[in-house]
Q: What sequence folds into this?
């Protein structure tokens, strides 16, 4: 059969895989023979002869491609970093142990499904089998372990679910930010910083003094949520942009019914957005076994597939803003805290932390009835109640249930058990049905809205959790499509007073652009969804530019007023606009709003910013900041505005965290080229940044476009590559295509997989 894969991809990638060879291993723990066929894009297609062998081989393969990454994630989540990296990581180990699941494992396993424990046991046995294989094949050891001088650790099934802090969680950071703004100014200023939706006015809870919240109250919490940095720079591990990163994390998904597609089948698209990392956060796998044939993306340290399809249904997720956290403030006396009319003792847990090169360190962790204590002084203690520490809340692990569903009813049943993160799920099946359902643990706060810290004295308690049926649902909507982008998407008649799940959503620019696009015409093909995923049209930019007074006619104003708002990588006005907005205008507005601490309102809601620019004292900021931005652009892009280009400064920067330790050929293998990008955090092609340098730090970690039922027509992207091993031909194999907005095949049928096989691994029971 003639290949339909573009020659651009096959020539380059087949050459890159020349060094990859077929191999065979006998491994302990496998029930029957299995094989892994790796295609020329680095996607492993796992064919197993028993259901749970598929998860065993998935774990084995995850270790083959991502062992150093998942070993580091495990050590971080369990608080075992100091054991291999030294004493500088003891504080981070303590932070992670505070937020590790310590509850009942019987209830924990059953929360995900009847065979969740078996799946985790099989997956971790596969990881351990690969670690054992390294013992007799040392050339398989990833080079990072040699650079740092230690060996990978073995896994336990419980490790998969006890680690919780890697998920997208909310909203304790915004509670603290809102309280601090209220202390320095008022709640009206806080409402400008973050618009509450649906329309809502919050109040300071009875008994709370916003000024008693310390500026660094979230240091330990943030450290538990931060990744591992190298070399040892403890300050860098607690990012000052932590909450800004939370605001940028988002995704797009949509699904179109057969009545509106040129294929006559549903089309489902999804591109989850996360901070870019090396190796990639996402890993694409294909699991084939009796009763299961599922492909798509997940995280390499977790069994199953979170985003993708099986032979009957397709699914894709974005974050849905259920508030699953609260900060509690306690009066304190010695080792006790006030609760009601009593003084309760903190529960203290003392543990040993192994420290490389020296004696064990002893850490003490305190807990209240609400959760881990993250900060104490002489008078006050502060603890976090986190829904994600409840049973069944290991991030994304619940996908092992819904990925095996065969229809809408089974899919909804699986979502009824979904815990974290709270997600918008879109759905399609081979019968032509489409649907949408949000899911996630939904705390019932009977007497407050969760937007500010509250006293921990018993007046503010969760009264259990709401059922999933109180959240909206759509099945075969009359409009013929549905989709989400983290923005407020509750129905207009939703009873928010009765079910106040949360009021802090991502701004609507991506969501609005998506719906505009999907409403434009009657019939859509697969390429239309690809075009939307690559779209650089900013709906925000023209709104801001319209606020430039007609009295301003300098070169900056003229350049912006004639621009269409498309943030293409070669756009000169786009470069000027982004420099103006994020290096000059927003900082100036933040100083005007909160001169004592402008950083607190630096991430002001852009809709509020637009309204501020109609007020005289803010209008006065436009001219000077435009002039400053034009001078800034001239410095970084040159004196000739005709050659300015947004992509000249808005570039990728994928960097292996150990590149500074490598030399010679290994250093060359580890290094990534940089590429220009268009877009911003407000375009559907999300290319966000965390710093005034405007480099690309964030965006689509994985993309898929599915012709539901015609599975071999599916396309995907991942970045920077499938493998985390710098020696692999798949270490950066997808980066250039991703940066140039190309797509790659997501093959499904065995016939197509064999046609594009790069190499094969045969596994037999030992």
A:
């Amino acid at each position: 059969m003639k290949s339909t894969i573009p020659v651009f991809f096959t020539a380059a990638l087949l050459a890159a895989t020349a060094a990859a060879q077929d191999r065979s291993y006998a491994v302990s723990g496998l029930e029957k023979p299995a094989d892994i066929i790796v295609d020329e894009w680095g996607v492993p297609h796992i064919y197993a002869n028993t259901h749970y062998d598929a998860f065993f081989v998935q774990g084995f393969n995850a270790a083959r491609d991502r062992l150093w990454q998942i070993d580091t994630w495990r050590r971080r989540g369990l608080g075992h970093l100091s054991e291999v990296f030294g004493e500088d990581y003891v504080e981070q180990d303590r932070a992670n142990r505070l937020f590790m699941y310590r509850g009942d494992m019987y209830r924990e396993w059953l929360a995900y499904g009847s065979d969740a424990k078996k799946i985790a046991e099989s997956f971790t046995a596969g990881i351990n089998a690969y670690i054992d294989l390294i013992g007799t094949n040392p050339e398989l050891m990833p080079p990072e372990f040699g650079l740092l001088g230690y060996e990978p650790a073995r896994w336990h099934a419980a490790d998969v679910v006890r680690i919780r802090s890697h998920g997208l969680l909310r909203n304790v950071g915004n509670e603290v930010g809102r309280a601090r703004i209220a202390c320095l100014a008022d709640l009206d200023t806080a409402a400008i910083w973050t618009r509450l939706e649906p329309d809502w006015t919050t109040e300071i809870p009875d008994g709370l003094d916003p000024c008693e919240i310390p500026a660094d109250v979230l240091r330990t919490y943030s450290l538990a949520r931060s990744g591992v940095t190298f070399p040892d720079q403890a300050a860098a591990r607690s990012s000052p942009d932590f909450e800004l990163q939370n605001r940028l994390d988002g995704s797009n998904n949509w699904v179109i019914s057969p009545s509106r597609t040129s294929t006559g089948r549903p089309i489902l698209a999804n591109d989850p957005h996360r901070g870019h990392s090396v190796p990639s956060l996402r890993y694409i796998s294909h699991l084939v076994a009796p009763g299961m044939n599922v492909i798509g993306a997940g995280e390499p340290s977790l069994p199953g597939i979170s985003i993708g399809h099986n032979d009957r249904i397709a699914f894709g997720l974005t974050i849905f803003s259920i508030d699953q956290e609260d900060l509690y403030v306690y009066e304190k006396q010695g080792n006790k805290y006030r609760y009601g009319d009593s003084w309760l003792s903190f529960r203290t847990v003392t543990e040993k932390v192994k420290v490389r090169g020296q004696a064990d360190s002893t850490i003490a962790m305190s807990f209240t009835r609400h959760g881990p204590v993250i900060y104490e002084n002489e008078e006050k203690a502060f603890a976090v109640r986190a829904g994600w520490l409840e049973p069944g809340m290991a991030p994304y692990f619940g996908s092992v249930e819904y990925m095996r569903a065969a229809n809408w009813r089974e899919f909804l049943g699986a979502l009824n058990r979904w815990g974290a993160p709270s997600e918008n799920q879109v759905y399609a099946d081979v019968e032509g049905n489409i649907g949408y359902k949000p899911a996630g643990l939904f705390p019932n706060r009977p007497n407050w809205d969760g937007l500010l810290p509250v006293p921990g004295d018993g007046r503010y308690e969760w009264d259990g959790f709401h059922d999933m049926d109180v959240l909206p649902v759509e099945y075969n909507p009359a409009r013929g499509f549905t989709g989400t982008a983290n923005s407020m998407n509750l129905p207009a008649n939703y009873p928010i007073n009765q079910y106040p799940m949360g009021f802090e959503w991502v701004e609507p620019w991506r969501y609005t652009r998506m719906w505009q696009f999907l409403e434009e015409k009657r019939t859509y093909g697969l390429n239309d969804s690809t075009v939307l995923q690559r779209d650089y049209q900013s709906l925000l930019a023209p709104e801001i530019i319209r606020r430039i007074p007609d009295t301003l006619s300098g070169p900056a104003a003229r350049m912006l007023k004639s621009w269409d708002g498309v943030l293409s990588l070669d756009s000169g006005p786009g470069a000027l606009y982004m420099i103006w907005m994020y290096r000059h205008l927003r900082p100036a507005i933040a100083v005007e709003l909160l001169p004592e601490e402008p950083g607190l309102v630096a991430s002001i809601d852009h809709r509020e910013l637009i309204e501020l620019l109609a007020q005289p004292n803010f209008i006065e900021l436009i001219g000077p900041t435009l002039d400053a931005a034009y001078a800034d652009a001239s410095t970084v892009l040159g004196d000739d505005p005709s050659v300015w280009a947004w992509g000249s400064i808005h570039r990728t920067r994928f960097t292996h965290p150990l590149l500074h330790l490598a030399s010679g050929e290994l250093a060359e293998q580890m290094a990534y080229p940089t590429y220009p990008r268009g877009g911003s955090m407000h375009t559907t092609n999300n290319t966000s940044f965390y710093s005034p340098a405007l480099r690309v730090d964030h965006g689509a970690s994985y993309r898929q476009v599915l012709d539901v039922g015609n599975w071999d027509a599916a396309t995907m992207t991942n970045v920077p590559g499938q493998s985390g091993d710098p020696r692999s031909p798949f270490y950066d194999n997808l980066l250039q295509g991703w940066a140039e907005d190309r797509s790659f095949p997501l093959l499904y049928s065995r016939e197509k997989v064999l046609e594009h096989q790069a190499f094969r691994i045969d596994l037999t029971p030992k």
Notes: The longest strand covers residues 267-275. The mean pLDDT is 94.
